[in-house]
Amino acid sequence: MNVKLKMNPISKAKRIVIKIGSSLIIDQNNGRINNEWLSILSSEINNLIRGGKEIIIVSSGAIGLGKEYLNIKTKTLKLEESQAAAAAGQSMLIHAYNQKLEKYNIKIAQILLTLDDTEERRKYLNAKNTFDMLLKLNVIPIVNENDTIATSEIRFGDNDTLSARVAIMMSADCLILLSNVDGLYSDGPNFSKTPNLLKRVDEINPEIEKMAGDSSGYGKGGMVTKINAAKLATSSGCATIIAKGSLNKPIENIINNGKHTFFKPIGTPQSARKKWIASSLNPLGRLFIDNGAKNALNQNKSLLPAGVVRVSGKFSRGDLVLILDEKDNILARGLVAYSYEDAQLIIGHKSSEIEKVLGYRGRDELVHRDDLVTEIN
Question: What is the DSSP letter of 301?
């Protein structure tokens, strides 16, 4: 594949989440890593990175690998058997990715998540900051559900949903769900007539959802979970693609306009995030800023501690706050990077002084521009 990508949804994307199912990563004949397939995919990932893309991989397979390794023969696993298999198989999964990608001098890191990590504000921020730093260091995060500790109450239930949540968290431009089918067929999974592959879906409505059929046939959740994942991702501005992963070169197949289904996003990840900040949260505090900081906001810059004259309210890191001028006019709202107690200590200080004041090095910004929405009167 030429490093210069052809014009398609992948070429337009800067940040891509790729979800890989168990049936792709595991050789169905022996229950071990499908080395030939993973070698090909690793080459394609290298091409994407050389083309300027940031890649996040959400990979299933730990339980299947662990089950084979631990010689667990039962078809339906008890919770503790699944957790033991995940614990054994996850290290094998990560080792396989590392072995294939290090050939291209690509570093990887393991991130295990539970539903709480994308729901609870503090955990969400911690996870996002870890992702951000890894991508900044040119490291590919390899993500899986933390099956070792997850119970039914805190499970995503399937990695399609997990991949959509990760895509939303990281403001990804494109989510690729590699499946064992070419995409979404209008006749559903059980074809009663000539199958009709939908190349493009502009809106996921009840008619489209009906085409997914029952929750069976593909992986744990089937096409139903893939459509639900696409609905989550596209509503947050992330284009979604369902394509057959077992092809010789699945990514190149998409780039060359081979069989797949493309789901059109609603807006962009940035606009979706800004909309969420503007309308979905109740402010828990206020930051009052000077004219210099006000001018910076008008130039779409971040809010630094030096420009804040006082704070009020009771907020924690990641909470929504209002930003006002010294005449109490609301200028903007955003997600604050420090708690009320820490914000009180660092306001008026330069960013370079934060570590000295707090005893730890936090973010340079009190509110980053990506987490800030200017009020429209």
Answer: P
For residue 241, which of 2, 54, 13, 31 has the smallest C-alpha distance? 13
User: Whole domain around residue 179: which residue ranges?
Assistant: 9-268
The answer for residues whose C-beta is within 8 angstroms of residue 85's C-beta and 6 or more apart is 62, 63, 64, 65, 66, 67, 69, 70, 72, 77
From CA 252, how far away is CA 258, in angstroms rounded? 8
Read off the tokens for 281: 């949260």
Please give the pLDDT value at position 155: 52
DSSP 265-293: -SS-HHHHHHHHHHHS----EEEEE-HHH
3 state DSSP class of 255: helix
- Looking at the structure, tell me whether residues 264 and 359 fall in a common domain: no
pLDDT reading at 153 higher than 50:
no
For residue range 5-45, what is the model confidence (pLDDT) as tens digits? 555 779 889 999 999 999 999 998 888 999 999 999 999 99
* pLDDT over threshold 80, residue 217: no
Q: How far apart are CA 150 and CA 333, in angstroms?
A: 35
This prediction has a pTM of 0.82
Same domain for 236 and 288, yes or no, is: no
Q: Is residue 99 part of a domain?
A: yes
pLDDT in tens, 300-311: 999 999 999 999
Do residues 183 and 208 both lie within one domain?
yes
Give every CB contact of residue 180 below 8 A, 6+ residues apart in sequence: 21, 23, 24, 218, 219, 244, 245, 246
Domain check: are 222 and 120 in the same one? yes
Q: What is the CATH number of the domain that holds 215?
A: 3.40.1160.10
Per-residue pLDDT at 220 exceeds 60: no
Q: Are residues 186 and 162 in the same domain?
A: yes
**Paired tokens of 222:** 């089937």
What pLDDT digit, counting tens, does each position of 54-67 carry? Answer: 999 999 999 999 99
User: Is residue 273 a part of any domain in this protein?
Assistant: no
